[in-house]
Specification:
- Helices cover 38% and strands 13% of the residues.
- It is built from 5 helices and 4 strands.
Length: 102
Amino acid sequence: MQPRELAQRIGSKKAPIVVDVRTGFEFKAGHISGALHAPIWKMLLRLVSLPPDKQSELVVLCELGPRAVMGKALLGFLGYQNVTLLTGHMAGWRRDGLPLER
């Protein structure tokens, strides 16, 4: 999903669940409003509350991409079937000048 499309969907209240797999430090420095903070290690240990509906639309992101790819694979392993990546990840979101929550 493109950053501007996600921003538009957030603004229209029809947004997918945004899953941010970055570290706590990165997340606190700035994240997409309403994002679920779910570092991969916490998902592995089941220390994060994921949506109960496995059909939920999820958009996964990290800073540059590799962790998000792992997060998407892990969510698939956990049974989530509607998972995509944010194109450009947080670097792209910031490059497009889109809003951050701190």
